[in-house]
Specification:
By secondary structure, this protein is an alpha+beta fold. The protein has helices spanning about 5-20, 35-45, 90-105, 115-120, 160-170, 175-185, and strands at about 25, 45-55, 60-70, 80-85, 130-135, 140-145, 150-155. The chain has a single domain (about 5-185), classed as Chalcone isomerase (3-Layer(bba) Sandwich).
């Protein structure tokens, strides 16, 4: 399914895509992050495994943190949650396109990308400054999403946990520092 975006959104998408190519600024937290309530509900006493910050032209776009249950370390097959807090207003269709562009960059073109995009559309919302998205796996074939503490969807698709999380955790992730922080705590 091909979406034609209005000129303003296309320009913003090009700028955001360029920003991703310019890189990410990894930042180890001097102060441990306070996880969102939904992260605490999922993980009990979560510990931060890694933190990163995405900036574009010096402007912060978002902060990301990966959490797991206290003392667990990162376990791909276990419980964990990715929390992203946005510093900018971003339309859902731009978030969706950026996610799918990253997935395609990492995996190459795959025949099921259209299906994933359609399913992911139900999970995302237009974002305002201060909004957060949390994603947490429910096994290898499902991801649960929350926006500002409200459950938005459970995306079910074969292998989606590893494919979606690869945007942040693969050896091809834009923020390799973030991926290395999280994976360094691997069990």
């Amino acid at each position: 399914m091909h979406m034609r975006l209005p000129i303003r959104e296309r320009v913003l998408m090009v700028l955001l895509s360029g920003a991703v190519m310019l890189g990410w600024a990894a930042s180890a937290s001097a102060n441990p992050a306070t996880p969102a309530p939904e992260v605490r509900n999922l993980l009990g006493q979560p510990q931060e495994l890694g933190a990163g910050q995405f900036r574009w032209l010096g402007f912060k776009v978002y902060d990301a943190q990966m959490f797991a249950p206290q003392g667990q370390g990162f376990d791909r097959n276990g419980s964990f949650a990715l929390e992203i807090e946005y510093a900018r207003k971003i339309k859902r269709k731009i978030l969706l396109k950026a996610s799918m562009d990253e997935m395609e960059r990492i995996e190459g073109k795959r025949s099921d990308h259209g299906q994933i995009q359609q399913k992911l559309t139900a999970c995302y919302r237009d974002i305002q400054s201060g909004d957060r998205i949390v994603a947490s796996p429910k096994g290898g074939n499902a991801l649960k999403f929350w926006v500002n503490g409200k459950s938005t969807c459970t995306l079910q698709h074969k292998g989606i946990r590893d494919r979606y999380m690869a945007i942040w955790l693969s050896d091809k992730a834009r923020d390799r520092g973030f991926a290395q922080q999280v994976l360094a705590s691997q069990k």
